[in-house]
Each structure stands twice: as structure tokens, then as C-alpha cells.
Write a structure and sequence with these properties.
heterodimer, B: mainly alpha, 7 helices, 72% helix, 0% strand
């Protein structure tokens, strides 16, 4: 291997290694007066180098941990060092085997593989695109929403990016979208699954930091949705400012296939659906069979039910929580689909947002601010609830705000509920809602404490099986493949955990932790500086390393420091989760980019994909900043639900 | 020989991967049973833990056989196969062998002690036995060691031939061909898209003048 032949990438890698090794040796005292703590630091530097050399991380950690643990014990009592090392090792292994947090990893992963194989992504994408066909950059926005929902349900970044690269990328290119924008949308959207719960990253963080996974999930919910909202806002603004970036899709891709009965009732599908159907039923002499009419009427009334049901439930639990409502509202938000143009404009701050945002938006906005100038008369649907209110605690203001938003959405929805919309709604009903229902029921049961995360994960797996069954994809082959993949992924994650827990035990034994703590404290940093430094380090580590490695190796080092600076580990975890999203988008190990490149037309270069991802990375950094400035975005829900 | 070892690891791993299905059904049933029939089972928690623990421990060698363990890919991917194999071989000897040997040994005594006292779980009164569960530590370690030796032989073969010996195919997480089929996309379609990309490029050049 001669030097001039070295590729640019190799240079990059070696530079990082050198940057790491040289200061280590510079700062380390000479070998003869080295304390064991310095050995710990040496070990840390060595492990990073070893990981970069590409040996499976789990075993690197394990081997190094065993060796250094033995060294550490030798410092104390040479005779029984071997015995102690072995004991440490097997106890750590056993602890991972009986870890009741990590047990949800295989279950969520299994659910993900099943959902992925249920193959509803195509339907999901098409129906979403139809639903929001009129806003600028609709294809890109539909891509983002699809990515967000699908990535959340499956959690498999690679599969989501590849699938969308096959499905949405061609569609966008054919519609003459900007290549960079299209690539950025897919890669950024695909990585959302890492942040929006139920995500494996948060489980791992919870297991490492002993933070309750439930609280992490509750906390990551809004930041995740907000990040998706920011992406969508960005795309819409870009498309609006410069339509050549994202022109309208060709008309034939935007027309909704209409069944005969609808055309008979309303040629062109522009008539308002409900009045016409009711009219036809009443007159009794329409050419369409009555059974069809009744069925359509039932479907048409679903949005109403979806607002009324959660609002009623919400009213009953008004003194506790209102996340139930988020479910209902979200679905409504989506039924309004394109009608959302008007409703979408109203949430302030983030400009236009994806439909799932609306429910979420309404919820935090309500209690947080707005002294609610909205005066809503207790309307018809809940008279009994109103009478009950005398015995109950009066509903707080936020309830009425939520209620008003619900009514407004309904009004707009039915005001625009043409036959075309009815058709779109039915499409969504078979693609979008099952998935969101799955996610929300899993999340809801965790967040409300009806089930532990593990149990919810098991229910999610069962739900995944049902979903696959409902879509006729539940074959022996599918289950077998999902089970095998799940075994491999779980083994990968959990063996990594075994390795890292041995490693961090050795690190602590050697006293490396103390040295770092002393050093950090000697810097006299303010908490703000510390946070900036920590996030910056994690951000930088995200370039060469993957998130699993960062979580299991470096989090144990940061976590003990948090106490000194009064940083809430829960909050820190949320910041880390947002931060690690960038790890997927940052070259050179940006996995998302390589997955996309694998299925993109040959003339789309990696550079184009990378530069397309950059704005989204910037948005992530912005989100990090927002979350830091307004911790309430993440902490409000866990505090509301679980107190402090 | 290599493939036999692969096969053993794979078969064992796949056999144990079915536990996930069992885990799903068992837990779902437990939730229903507790919530609707008001009949929780005391052994459920231990059973969950054991199913999960056994599953991932026995999956370790399988994952190694399919090179599914996460590696840092900053440099590795850019090395020639010979350099990769050489590095791997050294690191297998330095890290892997001591680690797994220690695991087997430690696991053996650990499980032995547990067998000796016929240890039962202490999470619940009358918990299920743990000695069988702990036995899986040395077994998983031994499987892993065996697979590791096979991997080392692979490294040597690669050093000799200059390319990696083949592995048996298995399901992979992102199987591009399969996904293409699922989405009804053909390679020609992707190639056909190129003209749009090129057109778009040209437009840009006309619009902004030649790009640097």
C-alpha cells in the first residue's frame, strides 16, 4: 500500500484516527508514572481506533473489556484477578440476558419486519399524494409523511429509504423535481423512525442510562413530530418560492379513480358527498342501489365519529390527560387531506404542516399558551357530558381549545367533502389509518401506563401479524423471514450490549471515569457550555460511528457527568436522540445515502444525494437548538403524565 | 468444513429465532389473561426474560456467520480484501478469542454453580429454574467460538486467494432485488429515469450558465 494510491476516504479515516491517537499519547504521562486511570483513557482511544478498523464492535468491546478488567484487578490483587475478571464478565452477560428493558427490542424489531412485509407503503404513498395534491411540492410532502409513518412503524431505516427510493424517487424525478431535493426528502424522512417512538434507539438509551423508556417515549413524541413538521414546512416553502424545484405532478397521477355510482350521482365528483347521498336516499329513486348509498354514508360519517368519540372521552378524562385526543385529531387532520390547506395555515410558527401535526399542534399549543379567546358553547353532541360537568371538575381551557379546533376541522372537512374526497378518504382508510392506529395504540398504551413498554411491544408484534394478515401477506415465508431477521438484529444489538457493559465496567474499574470527571469539572464549565460541548462531541462522533456504538460506548461516559451540571438525563436523552439523527445523514457513514444510491438511476451521484441531505441536517441542528431553548417541547408531556 | 460450521450456527440460530413468535403470543395472551380474565401468571415475567435471553444468546453465532454484527465502516470498506482479512485475523486473535474463551469458561463455572444448588428464580416465589437458562451462556459462547474459528479460517483463505470465500445466502434486512419486485420496479425503469435527471441537469446549465 503506497501513499499516493490511498483513496480520499482512507485519508479521511486515517486523519480521524491520527487526530485521536496523537493527542492521547501527548496527554498521557510517560509509562512509568501512569496511573490506572490513564490506562482507562488509553483503552477508550484504542477502542475507537479498533472500531474504525472495522472489526465487529461487540467483540472488540468484549475482548478489550476482558483484558483491561484483568489489568485493573491485577493492580489490586494479582492472585485472584483472573477469577474476578471471569465473574465480572459472566455477571455482566447475565445482566444483559435478564434485562427487562432490552426485551422489547426483539418485539419491536419483529413488529417492524412484519409491517414492512405487509407491503402497504405503495398504497400509503399514493393515497397521501392524492390527498394533498394541491399544496406546493405535494409529492415531496407525501414522501415525507409516508416516510415518517412507515419509518415509525417499522424502524428499519434501510428498508424505508430503499422502498421510497424505488417508489417515490422515480415519481418525483418523473415529475421533474429537483434531484437533490428529492434525495434529501427521502433520506431525511427515512431517518425519522429513529426519533419518533417506538424506536429502538430510545430503548437502548433507556437501558444504558436507566431512564424510564416510557418517559423517553412520551418525551420524544412531540420533538419527533415537530421535526417532521419542520421538514415539511421547509419543503413547502422551498417549493412555493421556486416552483421549478418541485412542479406539479402530471395530471394523470393526480386524478382519483371514481367508481360508477359516484359519477352517476355527481358527474365529475365535485358535488358535496353527504347532502347528495342523503338526498338520493330520501328520494328513493336514484340509479344507485340503496345498500351502496348506506355504506357510503357510513364511511362519510366516520370523520364525525372520529372527532366526537375522542372529544367525549377526552371530556371525561379532562382532568388527567388528553393524548387520546391526539389520536382522534390526527386522523381527522388527515381526512381533511387537501382541505387542510386552510386549516394547515393556522398553526403559527411552523408555517404549514403535515396533517398528523395538527392534532399534536393543537394539544401542546392549548395548555402551553393562548389564554383561549375561543368561547365555545357546549354543543349538541355532548349534552349528558355537560350535565355531568357539574359533578366533575370543570373542563380546563385547553379542552375547549381542542374542542374548537376539532369542530373547525370538521366544519372545513364537511364543507369540502366532495365525492372525490370521499374516494380519497376511503383510500386513506385502508392504508394510512391502520398504520397510525397501530402506532398510536402501541404508544398510547405505553404512555398511559396501560401496558409496560414490553407488553406494548408484544401487542405491537401481534398487531403486525394482524396487519400482515389483513393485507393477505401473512405467509409462512414472511413470518419465517421476519423471525430470522429479528433474531439477527436482536443478537447484534444485545451482543453489542454485552460487549459494551463489560467494557464500561472495565473502564470504571480502571478509574477512567474519574479522570474524565475531574478533568471536565476542572474546566469550570457552565451547564450551557457543558451541554454544547457534549452535543458537539456526539455530533462529531456521529460522522465516523453509528448510533448504536455511540449510545453503548459513550453514553456511559457522559451520563455520570450530568449530575454535576444538573442536567436531566431524560432531557439529555431527547437531545441525543435528535442529535443522532444527523449520524444517519452525515457523510461518510451516511447509511441513508448509500441505500438510496443503491436504487437510484446511475446519473444521480452520491454528491447530489449528500448535498440534498445538507439542508435537512441543518434543520436537525435547528431542532436541537429549539429543543434546548424550549425544553418544554419534550418535557411537557412526561411531566404532565408522570409528574416530576 | 467451513460451510458445515456455518450451517450449524445458522440452524441453531434460526431454530431459536422462532422463540420470538412464542414470546409474542405468550405475552399477548398474558396481557389478555390479566386484563380481561383477571388471571395473571406469576411465571410470565421469568418466562419472557428467559425466552428473550436464550433467543439473543443463541443468535450470536448465527449473526456472526452471516456477518451481521455491526462494524465501523469508516475505513474497512475501502481496504482491499487482503488487508481486510489480515486485520480481521489479527483482531480475532487479539479480541475475539480471549473474550469468548473467557465467556465459555466463566459461563461454565457460573452455570455449574447454579446447577449445583438447583437455583430457581427469585423474582417470584416458586420461580422457574434458572440453572437451565444459565447453561445457555457457555453453550452460546462455545458456538460463538466455533463460528469465530471458522471466520478465522475464512480470513486465512482470503489472505491466500485475495478474495473472500463465499457465504451461504440468507435473508437480509434490505434485499434490494426483493423490494424491487415488491414495488414492481424493474432495472430498465430506473435506467429510463436517467433521461429526466440529465434533462434537469441541462436545464440548470442553461439557466445558470455552465456550472463549475
Amino acid at each position: 500500500m503506497t501513499f499516493p494510491k490511498l483513496r480520499k476516504e482512507l485519508w479521511f479515516g486515517f486523519t480521524i484516527v491520527a487526530l485521536l491517537v496523537i493527542p492521547t499519547f501527548y496527554f498521557l504521562p510517560a509509562p512509568w508514572n501512569m496511573a490506572s486511570g490513564h490506562l482507562g483513557l488509553l483503552m477508550l482511544a484504542l477502542v475507537v481506533v479498533a472500531i474504525m478498523l472495522g472489526f465487529p464492535t461487540a467483540f472488540t468491546l468484549m475482548g478489550m473489556g476482558v483484558f483491561f478488567a484483568w489489568l485493573a484487578y491485577r493492580f489490586q490483587s494479582p492472585e485472584i484477578a483472573v477469577r474476578q475478571t471471569l465473574d465480572l464478565m459472566v455477571q455482566r452477560t447475565y445482566a444483559v440476558m435478564t434485562n427487562d428493558v432490552l426485551i422489547s427490542v426483539p418485539l419491536f424489531v419483529f413488529m417492524g419486519y412484519l409491517v414492512e412485509r405487509a407491503a402497504l407503503i405503495e398504497k400509503l404513498f399514493k393515497s397521501l399524494h392524492l390527498a394533498i395534491g394541491r399544496i406546493p411540492g405535494s409529492l415531496a410532502v407525501a414522501t415525507l409523511i409516508t416516510c415518517a409513518v412507515f419509518a415509525t412503524a417499522t424502524g428499519i431505516i434501510g428498508a424505508v429509504v430503499t422502498l421510497m427510493g424505488l417508489l417515490a424517487f422515480p415519481a418525483m424525478i418523473r415529475a421533474r423535481y429537483d434531484v437533490k431535493l428529492s434525495a434529501g426528502v427521502i433520506t431525511a424522512g427515512g431517518t425519522l423512525g429513529i426519533l419518533i417512538p417506538p424506536s429502538v434507539l430510545l430503548i437502548l438509551y433507556g437501558a444504558t442510562a436507566s431512564v424510564s423508556v416510557v418517559q423517553l417515549y412520551a418525551g420524544a413524541f412531540f420533538p419527533g413530530i415537530m421535526l417532521a413538521g419542520l421538514y415539511i414546512g421547509y419543503v413547502i416553502v422551498r417549493a412555493w418560492l421556486n416552483p421549478s424545484l418541485a412542479p406539479q405532478a402530471p395530471l394523470e397521477e393526480r386524478t382519483v379513480p371514481m367508481p360508477d355510482w359516484a359519477l352517476q350521482l355527481s358527474p365529475g365528483g365535485t358535488g358535496l358527498a353527504l347532502p347528495i347521498i342523503v338526498g338520493a336516499l330520501a328520494s328513493g329513486k336514484s340509479p344507485v342501489p340503496r345498500s351502496t348509498l348506506w355504506r357510503q354514508l357510513a364511511v362519510g360519517l366516520l370523520p364525525l365519529a372520529m372527532v366526537v368519540a375522542p372529544v367525549t372521552i377526552l371530556y371525561r378524562v379532562a382532568t388527567t390527560v388528553e393524548i387520546v385526543d391526539t389520536g382522534g385529531m390526527q386522523e381527522i387532520g388527515d381526512t381533511t387531506g387537501a382541505t387542510s390547506e386552510s386549516t394547515l395555515a393556522e398553526p403559527p410558527g411552523e408555517g404549514v404542516q403535515e396533517p398528523p401535526q395538527e392534532g399534536a399542534q393543537a394539544a401542546p399549543a392549548a395548555p402551553a399558551a393562548t389564554p383561549a379567546p375561543v368561547v365555545v358553547k357546549p354543543p349538541a353532541p355532548s349534552p349528558e357530558a355537560a350535565s355531568e360537568s357539574t359533578r366533575r371538575v370543570p373542563a380546563p381551557t385547553w379542552f375547549w381549545v381542542v374542542f374548537a379546533v376539532g369542530v373547525a376541522i370538521l366544519a372545513v372537512n364537511y364543507g369540502l367533502f366532495t365525492f372525490t374526497r370521499l374516494q380519497i378518504f376511503k383510500l386513506l382508510l385502508t392504508s394510512f389509518f391502520p398504520l397510525s392506529a397501530l402506532i398510536l395504540s402501541v404508544l398510547g398504551s405505553i404512555i398511559f401506563g396501560w401496558a409496560t413498554p414490553t407488553e406494548a411491544a408484544a401487542m405491537g408484534s401481534a398487531g403486525g401479524l394482524l396487519l400482515a394478515l389483513a393485507y393477505g401477506k401473512l405467509t409462512f415465508q414472511v413470518v419465517k423471514e421476519s423471525a430470522f431477521l429479528c433474531a439477527k438484529t436482536t443478537a447484534m444489538v444485545c451482543w453489542l450490549f454485552v460487549g459494551s457493559s463489560i467494557f464500561s465496567a472495565a473502564f470504571a474499574l480502571l478509574g477512567g471515569q474519574e479522570i474524565i470527571e475531574l478533568w471536565v469539572l476542572s474546566l469550570n464549565m457552565s451547564p450551557l457550555q457543558f451541554m454544547l460541548l457534549a452535543q458537539f462531541i456526539i455530533f462529531i462522533l456521529g460522522w465516523p460511528l453509528e448510533w448504536t456504538e455511540i449510545i453503548v460506548i459513550f453514553m456511559p461516559i457522559f451520563l455520570p457527568l450530568l449530575g454535576h451540571f444538573n442536567v436531566d438525563p431524560l432531557f439529555f436523552g431527547l437531545l441525543v436522540a435528535v442529535n443522532l439523527q444527523t449520524a444517519f445523514l452525515s457523510p461518510p457513514v451516511a447509511m441513508a445515502a448509500f441505500y438510496l444510491k443503491g436504487v437510484a438511476p446511475p446519473h444521480v451521484t452520491l454528491n447530489q444525494i449528500f448535498s440534498g441531505m445538507m439542508p435537512f441536517m441543518a434543520i436537525q441542528v435547528l431542532m436541537l437548538f429549539l429543543l434546548y431553548m424550549f425544553p418544554g417541547i419534550g418535557l411537557w408531556l412526561p411531566q404532565l403524565l408522570y409528574g416530576n | 468444513m467451513l460451510l458445515t460450521v456455518d450451517k450449524i450456527s445458522t440452524t441453531v440460530g434460526q431454530a431459536f429465532s422462532w422463540l420470538i413468535l412464542g414470546l409474542t403470543f405468550m405475552m399477548t395472551w398474558e396481557i389478555f389473561s390479566r386484563r380481561f380474565f383477571d388471571a395473571p401468571h406469576a411465571w410470565s415475567f421469568d418466562a419472557q426474560i428467559q425466552l428473550y435471553g436464550i433467543m439473543f444468546m443463541m443468535g450470536g453465532a448465527y449473526t456472526l456467520a452471516k456477518s451481521g454484527h455491526v462494524r465501523g465502516d469508516v475505513l474497512y470498506g475501502f481496504f482491499s480484501p487482503r488487508v481486510q482479512a489480515g486485520l480481521d485475523l489479527i483482531l480475532y486473535v487479539v479480541f475475539f478469542v480471549p473474550g469468548t474463551v473467557a465467556l465459555v469458561w466463566a459461563g461454565y463455572t457460573y452455570a455449574g454453580e447454579s446447577w449445583f444448588i438447583r437455583e430457581h428464580s427469585t423474582v417470584m416465589i416458586d420461580g422457574p429454574p434458572v440453572y437451565t437458562f444459565k447453561t445457555f451462556i457457555p453453550i452460546a459462547g462455545a458456538l460463538l467460538l466455533m463460528q469465530g474459528v471458522a471466520e478465522m479460517v475464512r480470513c486465512v483463505m482470503c489472505l491466500r486467494d485475495g478474495e473472500w470465500p463465499s457465504r451461504k445466502e440468507d435473508v437480509v434486512e434490505v434485499d434490494v432485488e426483493k423490494l424491487k419486485e415488491m414495488m414492481h420496479v424493474k432495472d430498465e425503469d430506473i435506467a429510463a429515469l436517467d433521461k429526466y435527471v440529465l434533462e434537469k441537469e441541462k436545464e440548470k446549465e442553461h439557466g445558470k450558465g455552465p456550472r463549475s
